Amino acid sequence: MKIISTIEQERAYSEEAVFVPTMGSLHSGHLSLVEKAKEFSCPIWMSIFVNILQFNNSEDYTNYPKDLNKDISKAEAAGVDVLFTPDTNYILREESLEHVSSGHKGVILEGESRPGHFDGVLTIVNRLLDLIKPKYMVLGRKDAQQLFLIKKKLEEKYPRTEFISSSIVREDSGLALSSRNKLLSNLAIETSAELFKCLKIFYSSFSSGDSVEDSRAKAKYYIDQYPKIELDYLEIVDAVSFNEPRKDTFGYFILIAAVVDGVRLIDNIYLEKKNNKFYVDLGTNLTGEGNK
Ligand code: PAF
Predict the structure, then answer these.
(1) Residue 119: CB within 6 Å of ligand 1?
(2) Residue 106, ligand 1, Cβ within 6 A
(3) I need a labelling partner for 160 at 20 to 30 A (CA). Which of 111, 212, 228, 291 fits?
(4) Above 90 in pLDDT, residue 289?
(5) Helix, strand, coil shares, percent, the chain, to 5
């Protein structure tokens, strides 16, 4: 594996790449993105850059887990060909930084609780795409709103890059893998698995014909039993527009965000309706089996 901190000398090679952007602190969720990237038979590039622009809170940035040495070993073992670990000045040079606005869909849900977060994400992903110009970019479905906004705002600008999404990876308990889980106590890890159960209650109720309101009420009743979980939002949206679902909606995200033990966590379930039947993607667990 080659480790680089500037792109110039690698530029021609990068254009054939399948690219996995990360903020490091790699876990099996990131490694599943690398596995997905292998499907494209191109050199696999991964970036590790903890993007200060997407933290609306400096304490959150300071506490964000960072361990470059471990990340290098994990990336190499996973089969990454080029690891791009730029320094902040190289990436955030004002003269080459185009600030990208996430618009009105960037200030709802996650964006409402984390002002400026999605502008920061889009600004950095735009910079990385402009530098690397990969053939494919692989992103996790856990950050559903991020995925939606990246596609909406950057797909047209980078027509030769195909945006690929990959399913959520979960602990056996159902807890979605996240670098932030490292900040949770053992007890909080157990409690956090309730977020997925809450999503499943929403999904079962909705897919058996209950209204959005009734489905949400049942799921909320469940999660409210856990005083350690401070619920931020529990919503269902049309996956294509991030608006409220309509009669003709075919893909849905059921989204949850909560703070547990001072740590903000998000999760979601993706479902599709075909011929009045629902198909759900609950993600896979660490042993590669589907979740129930
Ligand atoms: O999902 C992440 O880890 C980050 O938001 C990303 C896409 C690497 C941009 O910093």
Answers:
(1) no
(2) no
(3) 111
(4) no
(5) 40, 25, 35
